[in-house]
Write a structure and sequence with these properties.
By secondary structure, this protein is of the alpha/beta class. The mean pLDDT is 96. The structure holds 5-phosphoarabinonic acid. The site of 5-phosphoarabinonic acid has 14 residues, from loops.
Length: 434
Amino acid sequence: MIKLIEHTPYRNEILQKQTVRSYYDLISSKGEGSEWLGWMDVNNIAPPSLINEIENLIQTMSGIADYIVVAGIGGSYLGAKAVIEALSTSFPSKKPQIIYAGHNLSEDYHADLLAFLNNVDYSLIVISKSGTTTETSVSFRLLQKHCEKKYGIRSSQKRIICITDKTKGALKLLADKKGYKSFVIPDDVGGRYSVLSPVGLLPIGMAGFNIKELVQGAIEMSKILNQQKEYNIAVRYALFRNDMLNNGYMVEVMTAFEPKMFYLIEWWKQLFGESEGKNHKGIFPAGAIYTTDLHSMGQYMQEGQRIVFETVLSIAHANDTCIIPHDPDNYDALNYIAGKRISNINTQAKNGTILAHQDGGVPVIEIEMDCLNEKNLGALIYFFEFSCAISGYTLGINPFNQPGVEAYKKNMFALLKKEGYEKEYEILQKRINK
Ligand code: PA5
């Protein structure tokens, strides 16, 4: 399913003991933020009854929309987008297609989106645990009005689905008042750990992928990580990362030789960045797609400051076949690889890169999936969530809160003159006009 290969050998017995302690703190709910561990029990966040409910809803809604707009930000959309992009063909034509909103405040983006929606049939999924996130609320207000104008109030009730908290927040109130179908994000599951709850499962299912398999992969990984104590792959990955940090490698670049993994890396960046970047601690998570970025970031990786370690996210077997043809003229001098699959060339690019980067002083670890499918992605997601929690505990922070995200929100509210922020407005305005 998932293999971990430490290309750079390391040994740190003290840190190893500490990381194993973090593992036990996690599985016995003794670490900080233990009220946020709902994601650990996959059957709890994705019970068969929920999967059936989602599958029935998909049946009922089938054919009414060519596009599904998923509005959410951070943990409320990145996991779904990661899985959907990883499993979709590179040039999708199948309907319905998932498009995204609620993750930026660009006026042009919203104007473009509304203009696009004028001419297509769509439905809407809005996702916000707090129900008050400005980006998502602004987008949803525009989209909801657009939908009501286009389809009428009654018909838009059938096209709009909300995923939010059980009781709190403006979105819950709005969903109840408007009579929209809604799904609950469990209390004990934070945004970035929520992809295997309705937050991810509904959009992924709507996109046509097998959510049962996704969940099954996570269940199997959770069994492995709970049964193999002490030195399982999640502990080893957390240990490797913290050992690198202790040795001055402050940046982790996750690289993949498959462009479909771009958003999986974005999701991973959010998971680790938001979980670990606290108290002036944490590894800075970055990403690159190879071989594309070998022609840009590759130079830095090879010869830049030695503060970077690399985590290669690899896929052992391509799903499709594409063979380099033989050409009797051979003007491009490529006949030496004629007859080979492109994946074979990609694998040699990967092997060559790992060796070159190690020679250049970049420590490398590899996480290998045997192929891209729902089950392996479910396992990978669970593995990263589990390892992130262990790694955060080892670092000495609470991996489940995100106090820093509030700072910009407070300033934005004050600058927009939201009620209750009058004093802050004066202070910030003076700083801006200085
Ligand atoms: O991981 C997190 O908790 C965050 O990234 C949230 O998912 C993000 O801020 C969106 O929050 P909400 O779902 O409340 O709109």
